[in-house]
């Protein structure tokens, strides 16, 4: 569910008319619903009632300071993947003691910074990294809290670029090698405090079964580690999927209730109902690392149609947003629902490609999709753009990064100014 819907024929975010925002601030423009972000966080937190847990928002999904601040004030922890993300969390008022640091390639500078800030845990992805962490901590006279990421070798059945829990992925340590690694670390690495175990099997999972499979498979291991090494937490990762195809429609409760039970996409409450009974007796603190679930359907990218180009084979709608603003379709074949900001008067649909202005054939938002009519000068919204949208934007083709707006009820605040051309060349000789 989310805060985007048509009211009297205009698409609104909470109580703000998106056409007005587009006209006032220009396009491309990212708009986020604060209410939706908070709702997702709060519902997930509540779904885990009954187990000692913490929701550590995966900062990489959307790292705008105002988004982080919003979550920090609700009590979220943060899962970070770089020193830069830790810097952002601290600037936004987040507590490093509630930060976990993931990623396969942490640098010495990043490790030192995170140690000095007192993060909760380094989530380590190899024995080499664990040994390096021990060495750096030793040089600083510090003890590094750590968890190893276990690769449980389950199939997340998601796009190959966002599947991470199989043996052939670069992530984590083989399930079968973990116990011996903890054994060696406890004897040989005096500057490491083995604090937990971590896993994350992939992203955009819309079925509960891979989560259940991974939790059931790893439970005996985590209990052994608790007994032998006194670990205190188990992070079960993020990866809960969201609705992309009928994103706008899924804003309403009715839509969810109308989905046939056996095909109903994974909901927050189902996630909780299935996992809480499996996790609650373990005597461990359970960490969750959701990114997409919290922010994905909390944001849209607004763009203006510039031209309609009728080719012999296809009709192209050329818009002012490009793959540099939203790369998911080009990178992961990601699907974003496209809706006009003015509600179409009829149900008539036309087969079109919506493409950006970038000099790449991959620069499209949809191909051969049936869409309601919109014309040059009209605005459209690319739905579900709150996660891995702005965070992955670049200056490719020397295009300034778009502005970002946060809506809270009837108030819209610019939380990141649109870049100027001077910003684009700043720092160059
Ligand atoms: C990316 C990532 C997440 C968040 O994934 P979502 O699919 O956005 O929930 C969580 N944990 C780790 C280790 C990640 O790399």
Automatic annotation (TrEMBL):
<keyword id="KW-0456">Lyase</keyword>
<dbReference type="InterPro" id="IPR022643">
    <property type="entry name" value="De-COase2_C"/>
</dbReference>
<feature type="binding site">
    <location>
        <begin position="289"/>
        <end position="292"/>
    </location>
    <ligand>
        <name>pyridoxal 5'-phosphate</name>
    </ligand>
</feature>
<dbReference type="InterPro" id="IPR009006">
    <property type="entry name" value="Ala_racemase/Decarboxylase_C"/>
</dbReference>
<feature type="binding site">
    <location>
        <position position="292"/>
    </location>
    <ligand>
        <name>substrate</name>
    </ligand>
</feature>
<keyword id="KW-0663">Pyridoxal phosphate</keyword>
<comment type="pathway">
    <text>Amino-acid biosynthesis; L-lysine biosynthesis via DAP pathway; L-lysine from DL-2,6-diaminopimelate: step 1/1.</text>
</comment>
<feature type="active site" description="Proton donor">
    <location>
        <position position="359"/>
    </location>
</feature>
<dbReference type="InterPro" id="IPR029066">
    <property type="entry name" value="PLP-binding_barrel"/>
</dbReference>
<feature type="binding site">
    <location>
        <position position="239"/>
    </location>
    <ligand>
        <name>pyridoxal 5'-phosphate</name>
    </ligand>
</feature>
<dbReference type="InterPro" id="IPR022653">
    <property type="entry name" value="De-COase2_pyr-phos_BS"/>
</dbReference>
<comment type="function">
    <text>Specifically catalyzes the decarboxylation of meso-diaminopimelate (meso-DAP) to L-lysine.</text>
</comment>
<dbReference type="InterPro" id="IPR000183">
    <property type="entry name" value="Orn/DAP/Arg_de-COase"/>
</dbReference>
<feature type="binding site">
    <location>
        <position position="328"/>
    </location>
    <ligand>
        <name>substrate</name>
    </ligand>
</feature>
<feature type="modified residue" description="N6-(pyridoxal phosphate)lysine">
    <location>
        <position position="60"/>
    </location>
</feature>
<protein>
    <recommendedName>
        <fullName>Diaminopimelate decarboxylase</fullName>
        <ecNumber>4.1.1.20</ecNumber>
    </recommendedName>
</protein>
<keyword id="KW-0210">Decarboxylase</keyword>
<feature type="binding site">
    <location>
        <position position="360"/>
    </location>
    <ligand>
        <name>substrate</name>
    </ligand>
</feature>
<dbReference type="Pfam" id="PF02784">
    <property type="entry name" value="Orn_Arg_deC_N"/>
</dbReference>
<feature type="domain" description="Orn/DAP/Arg decarboxylase 2 C-terminal">
    <location>
        <begin position="30"/>
        <end position="386"/>
    </location>
</feature>
<dbReference type="Pfam" id="PF00278">
    <property type="entry name" value="Orn_DAP_Arg_deC"/>
</dbReference>
<dbReference type="InterPro" id="IPR022644">
    <property type="entry name" value="De-COase2_N"/>
</dbReference>
<dbReference type="GO" id="GO:0009089">
    <property type="term" value="P:lysine biosynthetic process via diaminopimelate"/>
</dbReference>
<dbReference type="GO" id="GO:0008836">
    <property type="term" value="F:diaminopimelate decarboxylase activity"/>
</dbReference>
<dbReference type="InterPro" id="IPR002986">
    <property type="entry name" value="DAP_deCOOHase_LysA"/>
</dbReference>
<feature type="domain" description="Orn/DAP/Arg decarboxylase 2 N-terminal">
    <location>
        <begin position="35"/>
        <end position="295"/>
    </location>
</feature>
<feature type="binding site">
    <location>
        <position position="388"/>
    </location>
    <ligand>
        <name>pyridoxal 5'-phosphate</name>
    </ligand>
</feature>
<keyword id="KW-0457">Lysine biosynthesis</keyword>
<feature type="binding site">
    <location>
        <position position="332"/>
    </location>
    <ligand>
        <name>substrate</name>
    </ligand>
</feature>
<dbReference type="GO" id="GO:0030170">
    <property type="term" value="F:pyridoxal phosphate binding"/>
</dbReference>
<feature type="binding site">
    <location>
        <position position="388"/>
    </location>
    <ligand>
        <name>substrate</name>
    </ligand>
</feature>
<comment type="similarity">
    <text>Belongs to the Orn/Lys/Arg decarboxylase class-II family. LysA subfamily.</text>
</comment>
<keyword id="KW-0028">Amino-acid biosynthesis</keyword>
<comment type="subunit">
    <text>Homodimer.</text>
</comment>
């Amino acid at each position: 569910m989310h805060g985007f819907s048509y009211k009297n024929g205009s698409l609104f975010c909470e109580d703000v008319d998106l056409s007005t925002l587009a006209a006032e601030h220009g396009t491309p423009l990212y708009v986020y619903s604060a209410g939706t972000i908070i709702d997702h966080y709060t519902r997930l937190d509540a779904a885990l009632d009954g187990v000692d847990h913490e929701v550590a928002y995966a900062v990489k999904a959307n790292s705008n300071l105002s988004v982080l601040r919003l979550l920090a004030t609700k009590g979220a922890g943060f899962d970070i993947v770089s020193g830069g993300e830790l810097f952002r969390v601290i600037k936004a008022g987040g507590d490093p003691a509630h930060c976990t640091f993931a990623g396969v390639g942490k640098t010495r500078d990043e490790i030192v910074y995170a140690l000095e800030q007192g993060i909760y845990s380094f989530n380590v992805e190899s024995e080499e990294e664990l040994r390096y962490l021990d060495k750096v901590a030793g040089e600083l006279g510090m003890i590094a809290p750590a968890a190893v990421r276990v690769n449980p070798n389950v199939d997340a059945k998601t796009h190959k670029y966002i599947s991470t829990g199989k043996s052939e992925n670069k992530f984590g340590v083989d399930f079968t090698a973990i116990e011996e690694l903890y054994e060696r670390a406890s004897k040989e690495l005096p500057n490491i405090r083995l604090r937990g175990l971590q896993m994350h099997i992939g992203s955009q999972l819309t079925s509960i079964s891979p989560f259940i499979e991974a939790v059931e498979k790893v439970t005996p291991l985590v209990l052994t580690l608790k007994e032998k090494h006194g670990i205190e937490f188990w992070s079960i990762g993020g990866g809960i999927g969201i609705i992309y195809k009928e994103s706008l429609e899924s804003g309403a409760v009715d839509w969810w209730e109308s989905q046939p039970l056996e095909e109903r996409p994974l909901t927050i409450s189902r996630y909780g109902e299935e996992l809480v009974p499996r996790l609650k007796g373990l005597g461990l603190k359970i960490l969750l690392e959701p990114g997409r679930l919290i922010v994905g359907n909390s944001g849209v990218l607004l763009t203006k149609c510039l031209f309609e180009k009728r080719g012999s084979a296809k009709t192209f709608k050329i818009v002012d947003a490009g793959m540099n603003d939203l790369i998911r379709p080009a990178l992961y074949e990601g699907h974003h629902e496209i809706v006009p900001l003015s509600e179409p008067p009829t149900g008539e649909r036309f087969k079109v490609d919506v493409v950006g202005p970038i000099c790449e054939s991959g620069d499209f938002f949809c191909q051969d999709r049936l869409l309601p009519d919109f014309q040059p000068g009209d605005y459209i919204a690319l739905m579900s753009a709150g996660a891995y949208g702005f965070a992955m934007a670049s200056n490719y083709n020397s295009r300034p990064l778009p502005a970002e707006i946060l809506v809270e009820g009837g108030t819209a605040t610019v939380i990141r100014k649109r870049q100027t051309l001077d910003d684009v060349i700043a720092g160059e000789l």
